[in-house]
Every structure is written in C-alpha cells, then in structure tokens.
Amino acid sequence: MSDLSPFANYESKVKSAIENSDVPYVGLIDEVLITDEMHFVEKSITMYGGQLQKFERGLRLAPALFVTYLSTSIRKNLGANTSAIYGCINMAVGKPVEAKQTSDERSRLWKAFRVACKKLGLPISNRCFGPNFMVDAYLEQAGIPEANLPELEKRMELYAKKHGLPEVDDVTAEQAWYSSFKKSLKPPFSKRSIRALENDTTGYYLNHFLEEKRKITDLGSEQYTIAYSVNLMFVEDELKIVIPALSVEKAWTINVDGTIETVNVQEADFQFLIEDVGSRNIIVECDEQRFEYHLWNSEKDNQLAIFRADNGHFVSSHSLTEEGEAFPPGKYIIISRFEFTSNEIELTEYFQDGFYIGDFEIKPDTQIIIKRGPVNFAILSHAEPSISFEGTLIKPHTGKDFYCSKGIELITNLPKEWLSSEHSFELEISSNSDTPNIVINLKSDEMNQVSCFDYRAACWAPGLKRIVVKLKRVGSSRVLSRLSALVWCGLDAITDGYKFHISELPAEDNFNIDKSSNVRRDVTNNNLVAIDNDLPHMDICFNFTAKNSQVFRFALQGTFLYISDLKDGFRQEKILSLGATLASNYNDSRRVRIYSSEDPTLEIGANTLHDFAKKRWYKTSIASLLDKVDRSNNELVANYGGAKQVLLKLVSPHYIENWTIEQQAQTVEVIFETPVGVSEMEIVATNLLTLAEEKIYVSSLNGQSNYRQKGLSATLFHHDTISKKQILSVDVSEGEDGPWLLEFTASVDGKWGRFSNKRKDHFSVGFVCASGHLINLGNDYFTKLREFSSEHLIDLFALLTKKLNRCFEVNSWNSLEWIKGIWMFMLNYIGGIESSNRVIRLTAYQASEEDSQSWVPQVSLGAYSNNIYSGCFNNYRKLDAQNSTRLKTLKLAGEVNQSLLNAIKTEKLALAITVFFANKSEYADPNSQVEPVEFNYEQYIQSIPYLFSESDFDKLKRGDIKPAYGDLLGGNHYAYSQLKFIENEKSAQEGNDYIRPHFNTLVIKVARELGESVPILLPDHYFGNHDYLIELLDAVCKFSSYLTKSYRAAHWEKTDIVKVLDRLQQQAGATADIKSLLSYFFNVCGDIFHFYLLLWEVYFVSESNNEKGSLANV
Q1: pLDDT at 974
Q2: Measured by CB atoms within 10 angstroms of the end CB, which terminus of the chain is less buried, N or C?
Q3: What is the model's pLDDT at position 216?
C-alpha cells in the first residue's frame, strides 16, 4: 500500500458520490463502488491476509472508500450468505465466515469505523453501551439487507392500506407513522432488520416508500387514506391520549390497565385524560387499528419516561438498570418515579405522589448524567444536527399547535466534527402552497446559530401553512436534518384565548369559511372575530392542500362547564349553563369538566379544589363532590379574587311522602313520612315584602327548640320508626311581619340534600305573619309594596317568577298559592316592568335537574304581558342572552331593529337569509351603507329544506349543535326548534292532562284555517309510527308564524293584538283560559315561536327600510 495514488483517486470519486447523493447512509447509495473500486479494496485487504488492523488503517486513510465498501458488503451479504454482522465483516476482508475475532479487534474496528463516519459527516449514534451497540453502528450505515427489502416493502404496503399514509410534509406525522410501523413488526421479520429500522433516524426507508406511493396516488391508480395516529402525550402537566378528528364518526375503545371506556370521535380531536400518571399499559383500538403504549415497565421506583417537549409525544421508558440511552437532539420532558440529581435537569415534585418531573435539552455531541446514589443513567444525543423553531407557540383548544410568524426564529445546532470541515451549510425553507423557497446561509464555524424567518421576503401568501425546513450542505442534495411545523403567516399574537392580532388576513384559498364556525372576517379592522361571544368555542378551518383541511378550535374568554355520562354505551359530553343545578347521589356515573381561560380558583364551601392559573382544565366525578357538600354549601364556585360566580349547584334528593301542613295561631306544623328519618335541617325563610332572609338550623339529635328572639324559631322532633312520621314545628311569635316562603335542606345519615318525591316536586311552606300571629294576605301588604323602589320590586318579581315556574307538591302549593296574586298585582301595577332586561330573561324557562321534566309552568310572562312580544325591541339589544337560543333571538331582534345591515355584516344572521332581500346586490359590498329591503318571506320558507341535511340532524340529536349567532334563521335553527318541540311535547304527556289536549286542539284548529304551507325538517323516520306528531308539528309552526306576525304587526302596523288574543280565546272555548294555554305554548313551543318572531321582525324591518329609504342610520 505504498503507492497511495489509487487510494486518492478512488477516495475522491467515492467521497464526491456520497456528497452529491440524497441518501443518508453510504450502504444505500447505489453504484458508489463500481467493479474497479471493489476489486481494488478487496485486493488491498486480501493482500495482507484480511488483517483487521490493515482495514482500520484504510478507514483512516480513505474513510469514504472503506466505509462504503464495508457497508455495502454487509448490506449485500447479511441475510443472504450469513445472519451475523461479524460473519459479513469476515467476508468483506477475505476471511472465512466463521473466523473468530477478539473483543479487542472488534472494539478497535468499531472505533475506527465511527471516526471515519464522522469525518464524512454521516449521522451516527453516540450510544456506546448496552446490547449490540457496536453492531448498530454498522447496521446504521448498511441499512436493511438486500435480502429483506422485498419483505419490508410488502409490510409497509399492508400497513399503509390498513392505516393510510401520513400527510405530505408533516414530519411529526411521518415520525409517528414510522414509529407505529416499526412497533408492528414481529417475527419472522428479521430482528437485525428491525434494529436497522430503529437506527434509521432520518426516515430514509419511510421517505422512499412515501415518495413511490404518492406518485401512484397522484396518477390516480391507487388511493390511500390519510393516516391518523393516536398519540400518548404529556401536555401542560397532564397525561392524555389524543385521538385525531376523522371524517366519519368512529367508536374507539381506550383500555387503561384493564379499565375500558368507549368514546365517539369525529369532527374534533378527542382528548382522553389519564388521571393516574402511574398507569402502565394503554391500548387504544378502533376497527382493525390498534395503538399500544407501555408507559412503565414496572411500579418500581427506578423507572423514568421520556416525552418530546415540542409536541408532548411519548418517546420511551427506561429504568436505572440500563446504562443510558441516546436520543436525537432536541427538547424533552422527563417523568421519574424517583428523585435524582443532575447538572442539567431541575426536578420538581409532581402533584401525584411518588412522581417527579423535569425538562432538558440535548444538543449534538452532548451528554446528561442522572445520578441516584452510586447509579448513573446517561442521556446522550446522536451525532447529527438539529433544527428547531423558537417563537410564540399557540396551543389551541383542539387541533395541532402552531407558531405565530411574528418574531419566529430557526435554531440550528451542528455537531462539533462538522465545524472543522471544508463544507458550508444552508437552510432551505419551503411551503407546498408558495414559491420560491427561502434559502438561508449558515456560518460554518458556529455550533449554535439563530436565523430569522420572514415569509413576506419571499412574497408568500398569508395564512396558516405547513413550513418544511431542510438542512443541507451547500451544493449537495442530501438532507442532513428535516423539520416541519405549522406557522400562521400574518399572525402576530393571540390573547385571551381568541383575540387575534393579525397583520395580514389569511388568503381566500387558505381560510375555509364554510367549514369554520362562530368566526367572521372583520374587513374594516383587518381581523378575525367571534360572531357569538356566549359560545365556548370558535372553530377556524384552514386549507393546506386541495384535499386536506384542518379545523382548529379556540376557547373563548371565560369559564365553561361540561358534563359527560355513559349513554348508549358511550361516554358523551355536553356543555352546561353556568349556575345549573344537578341532582346527584353516590351512584352518579357522570363527570364534570371545567375549562377557564381566566385565573379563578375553584371552590366548594371551605374547600379549594383547583387553581386555573396553574392548569386550564379541571375534571372530577359528580359523586366525589358530594363529600364536600354541607348544609350551608352546595355550590361549586369560581372565585375571581373575592368576586364569586356560581358554576354548579348540587342537590341530593331525600324522598318523603304524606307532606301535610297545619296552621295554628302562632305555629305552623309540617308532618311528613320518611323511611330513615331526618337528623338535621336548615330552613331558608324569605320575607316576600322586604326580601330579608333568615336561616334556621334545627336538629332532632338534641330535641331542643331553636328559639330565636326577633325571628322565626323551629323545632325538629324525633323520627317515629314505627309510623315513619316526623314533625317540624315553626314558631312565628317573634317573626317579622309579612308573607314568608320557607324552603328546606335536610341531612339523612350525614348526607345533605333537599326534599323530593318520585315526580321531583318541590316542598315548601308559605304563610303570612302579623304581630306574631298567622293571618290571611290582605290589602295592607299591597299598600306597603307601593313604598318600595322599582329596583326592589323587580327583585321581588324575578324571585316570584322563578318560584312560580316550579312544580310544588299539592299541599305545599295550597299553602302558598297566594304568591300568584302578588305576581299578578306587580305585573299590572308596575308600569314597564316587562321592559327590564332582568325580567325578559325570565321568559326563557329551562327546567333544571331538580325539576320534574314533565312539568310545564302555568305562568309565562309573554302570556300575561302582551308588550313583551308586541312592543319595541330596541331595549333587547343589551339583553344578557346567557347562551340561550331563545334569548339570542330576542337580543338579535333588537339589533335588527337598530340596523338590519349591521346584523348581516356581523354575520349574526345565517348567511342563507341574505339572498332573499330585493336589493341584495346593493348591500353586498362590505363598504355599503344601504339597508336591506323587501324580504321575500315566501321564497325563504320554500328554501329552508335545502339548508338542512340528514347529517345535520344527527348532530342536532346528539346535542353537538345548539344554534347561536351565525346560525339564527338558518336550517339548523329551524330544525333545532322543531326538535325541541317534539322533545318537550313527549315529556309533557304526563301531568298536563287538562291543558295539553286543549292547547293541541286549539293550534290544529287555527292551523287548518290558515292553510299556509310550512316545511318540516325532521326526517320521517324520527317520528316512527306517531303520525299525529307530524300533524301537530305542522300546526304548531303555522300557529307560531301567525301569532308572531300578529305580535310584530301590532308594533309596526299599529294593529290591535288584543283582538287577536280575544279571537283565540273564542276558538279555545269557555272552559279554557287563553293565558294558561299561551303559558303552555311558550314553554313547550317556545323555540319555534322565537324563530318566527325573529323572522317576522326581519320582514317588518326590511319593509320599514323600504318605506323610509334604505340608507343605514349609522
């Protein structure tokens, strides 16, 4: 080997071939070594009898030539001529396959091979311990043996047909797909080939396979679905399974250490919280797809788990029995079952006992040591470069994380060995929707470099897009490192959950408005804004390609409450209104989940459950909250630094029978029967004149009277176990004058709740007290009422309205029926009380869980006050709609009354309605100030069936759709109102035996006289064999249209609504009261009524605009 010129010549040729190839491993580069080079190396080696020392020298003198020769030889011979790596090495140096090698020889050759690879800038693992670490170094460069390539391609093909292919240029999705594929490989597939795949950190085989299959798909000869990988993630201190959104609904089973739950997933990513971070085995399955994660090998306190910091994905788990592990450069999160010390990792105690959490960044050629006593665990990085994004990372409520383009930077880390080479490097940044690519040149003498990225410099269109960054040597096509991330080009920041700060609106072809919800373009202010701020979410859809779009959900500002329960075998979730009441017991399987974009603490009584400043989500079972309920505290509240908001009220019903009330001169005795007996009771007594409230605690445990000076007193007598009777005696001798309403909570076996029966009636007591004696309600009371302020009277009226909406037990009602007389007096006496927004909110009655679902209140404001629906709607613009669809229609009606054009521009009305105005071409211009005129009601009614689909109905039925701003007067709104009527009608079939048939007869009679046609959007199969429901629904819609048109005509055309109501009274007959019938109507058919109320308001406003000129009053 004295003459080195052939070496120099061949070395130069091979080195040039390596540099110009886009293949990461030399053993995979075809025809690098032609026959001459192969014969030259073989001759040189065999000339010296196949001595490994000579081969080591060759690696030092001509690294490209000898690394390529050895890697190619291993790839060709492994699996074909021998199954052992060292047998292949023997064949490469001209020795017999079975020749022995000493451990020292193997070690020296391995070290020489690694040094040679580093000189060539080839990726190589820094793992220098553990099983097969020397073998892996060769496999890394040799790749899969040629004999196993057909089987590999076959396995990949089968996996792709079953699971689909990852999205184009989504490096994270590709890595997840590749990782899942590797885990799916089982014998008889070669273990050595599996090891070679595990060492393929650049994804060579995957990218080669994807390129071929996507070419086929583009030609249309074969189609693959998009692969959706289920991921085990650790995000914001929570362990969760994330199942991506699908185009069709699928049922997934989640098995956590043998506990199985089933969930439905379709349009939005589903996040399943794993409450115990110590869970060992998690299996997620759907159809033939199976994702399996082994988080911990055991429960010993020597275990640790690694997660990616950028996306939270689970990487691997280890124990201190191992020497260590090597990872690609990047940032990671570590969860440990033990405390340790480290110079690079700051460990903090996790909120679950026995676990600790920390984070670290591993850079090329660096090492982190974890110490626990005498035991060390080494964390190393592979000798490969890394790229990362730095900037404002947005984590939406659901959907993938993305970066704001403002201030975004690219961080590049290069291995030390590369800095001394003669090569220079560059970053190539691309987007599949934009050209040209952006190229950034890097310095060749700095390990860590920061580069700025500006999409406008390349004239890219604004919008959310996937950005792909590739690190290359200048002039070389080989990709040294690759990274992709979602970047919203044109977004500066997002604050308060959904307030966008945008420098450029997304391009028209990027922002998919049709698949978005509760969002609109505010062209005037160059922004995206929410249509309805009462809704918890805003969904924005972006198109990445012609076939690929994704929805990102952003949580609006505020606190939102969700409840889930097992229904039809699935755990299904729906949103609850804040302040809702839930009836519960210890067998309750429901769960409550609370999200807050603000920073309150969550409290119940003296118990602080959660701090939202630390974590935005809180989840617990309803049953577990009952342990924290006492006689004075049954409310789950959000505490905003002293200001409290009730989120949830919990009641645990105690069933009683034979409730009787007996009044004497100065006492009221309540006698009731209960199986076990009440040990304690709290009475909340409200004076219905002054609104003063007294709380009286009594106990049967001591048998003592709770006598109080200057107040009501009470005694609870012992329970008679034979008769099951118990007596409560209330002494009024020291009570304040006025009418009183008494309500009760009681303790049975230490569990606090309210009295109830099977029908969920309310148990209360009412009486009037004067000078310490019981009297009947007299005129003196009404005289005193006139002395109070209007604000006080509205408070009293609102309280009475809420009480009258309840279904009281018959004896309870008999003792307090006089409150309806007070309510009627106040409604008639107080001028304009119905114009108060606080009072208007009471028109939207919604039964709570503590109310009978079949009960229909007999008192409705709209039935007793004509001005509610026939007056001017201007005041309703300021109405607090409280996420009620009915109240939203009233609020929007007020806005329409102010400016129909503005209601359309802000997209609060469904877009479909905008085409039915005579001058639609005039007001369609964003800068137009022309008000819409002449709404075509008939054409609109005929078009409604085309605005609704069968799939929309399925969503309505599941509760996934609740119409809000943006939907009002659209197909979903109309179908929702019809569906709610059918549900209300079915539930009202019990307990309304008198009023229900009278009402149904009246509306059918009126509908037959009207004769107009109205659409029914609910599918026929929903009604089953109940054809009468179709006729009744048709009649209710016609009656609603007729009545709402009459109400609005009374305002706009000055017609007399009283005549309309008198005519309805005549049609109802002498035995029915129209006010009671309308009370039933507003509660059972209220959603349909409010739909038509808004519709006719739009009609009359458009006619008014036509008469006074169509220029907007702005």
Answers
A1: 97
A2: C
A3: 65
**Same-domain status, 493 and 625:** no
Residues 412 and 347 in one domain: no
Domain membership of residue 932 (yes or no) is no
Q: Structure tokens of 847?
A: 């039964």
Residue 59 included in any domain: yes
Give Dmax (Cα) for the chain. Answer: 128
Q: Rounded CA gap, 946 and 722, in Å?
A: 66
Q: Which amino acid is at 410?
A: L
pLDDT score of 813: 95
- Single pTM value for the model: 0.76
Give residue-wise pLDDT tens across range 25-66: 676 665 556 666 667 777 777 666 567 888 888 888 888 888
Write b or e for each residue in 355-383: b if 16 or more Cβ atoms lie within 10 A of its Cβ, otherwise e: bbbbebbbbbbbebbbebeeeebbbbbbb
Look-up of token digits 């590049």: 412
Total domains present in the chain: 6
726 and 776, same domain (yes or no): yes
Structure confidence at residue 580 as a pLDDT band (50, 70, 90): confident
Do both 1041 and 1089 map to the same domain?
Answer: yes
Percentage with pLDDT > 90 across the chain: 40
Reported confidence tier of residue 1063, pLDDT bands at 50, 70, 90: very high
pLDDT score for 943:
94
Class of residue 543 by CB neighbours under 10 A (exposed 0-12, middle 13-18, buried 19+) = buried
The 3-state DSSP class for residue 743 equals: strand
Same domain, 1047 and 1082: yes
Is the pLDDT assigned to residue 761 strictly greater than 80? yes
Within 10 angstroms of residue 797's Cβ, the number of other Cβ atoms is 23
Residue 901 lies in a domain: no
Q: Counting Cβ atoms within 10 Å, is residue 1004 exposed (0-12), middle (13-18) or buried (19+)? A: middle
Task: Please report whether residue 1113 resides in a domain.
Answer: no
Shared domain for 311 and 433, answered yes or no, is: no
Using the 3D structure, point to which of 794, 826, 858 is the last residue of a domain: 826
SS3 294: strand
From start to end of 718-835, where are the E strands? 725-731, 738-748, 751-756, 764-770, 773-775
Distant-in-sequence, close-in-space partners of 21: CB < 8 Å, separation ≥ 6: 29, 32, 477, 478
Phi-psi region of 152 (alpha: psi -120 to 50; beta: other; left: phi over 0): alpha
Contacts of 1106 (CB under 8 A, 6+ apart): 918, 933, 934
**Cβ proximity of 173 and 166 under 8 Å:** yes
pLDDT value of residue 50: 64
DSSP state letter for 834: G
pLDDT at 1046: 97
CB-based burial label for 459 (10 Å; 0-12, 13-18, 19+) = exposed
Identify the domain containing residue 1015 by its residue range.
941-1108
Domain boundary among 597, 623, 649: 649
